[in-house]
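Quick illustration, no need to memorize.
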Amino acid sequence: MEIFKQTNFDFLGKKWPFIAVSLLLTVVGIVSLLVKGGPKYGIDFNGGALMDVNFKQRPSAEDIRAALRKKITGEIEVQEVANSQEVLISTSVRDPKGLEAVRNDMLATLNTAFNQGSAGKLDINTATQSELLEGLRDPLAKAGAGLNDEQLQALVSRVLTYPIRRRVPA
């Protein structure tokens, strides 16, 4: 069975047109990099904070950006995840020591701007061990779970060490 009838193709005879197209594409690529100011590196190379936020009612990307601009300097990128209430928020932070402060500012700003309905609710993503202890003691007692302090301490310890994907409810 013969798939290709004519296997004779003069590659070297057509080399100059292909070299010209290759050089043209190379020049276009270099000019594009120069015009746009070079390649745009993400937080993998520049450093920064990346936060995956799951909203009850997702606000628009521009509303999120506007709220964060009040507290955070630098470039803020907001990407909406299709068919969900999630957004990915990234900011550029050059100083690794200031990274935790920027994350805390992002969290506080998002909670203030978009989380009015759950004021006073315990957020296990950001709560300390003592906050979790106090926040769980009364609801568990009201539910009839007879846990002593040692059992409650063990429960809170397991909750804090459980390997969950870091999500910030807003």
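The chain has a mean pLDDT of 82.
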